[in-house]
Amino acid sequence: MKWEVVIGLEVHVQLNTASKIFSGSSTAFGAEPNTQASVVELAFPGVLPVLNRAVVDKAVRLGLALDATINKKNVFARKNYFYPDLPKGYQISQMDLPIVGPGTLTILVGEEEKVVRVTRAHMEEDAGKSLHEDFQGMTGIDLNRAGTPLLEVVSEPDMRSAEEAVAYARTLHSLVTWLGICDGNMQEGSFRVDANVSVRPFGQAEFGTRREIKNLNSFRFLEQAIKYEIQWQIDTLEDGGHIEQATVLFDPDSGETRMMRSKEDAHDYRYFPDPDLLPVVLSDEDIARVASTMPELPGQMKARFVAEYGVSAYDAALLTTSLAHAGYFEAVARATGQGKLAANWINGELAARLNREGLELAACPIDAARLAGLIMRVADGTLSNKLAKQVFDTLWTDTLGADEVIERDGLKQVSDAGAIEKMVEEAIAANPKAVEEFRAGKEKALNALAGQVMKASKGKANPAQVQDILRQKLA
Question: Coiled-coil segments, which residues (predicted)?
Answer without folding.
Answer: none
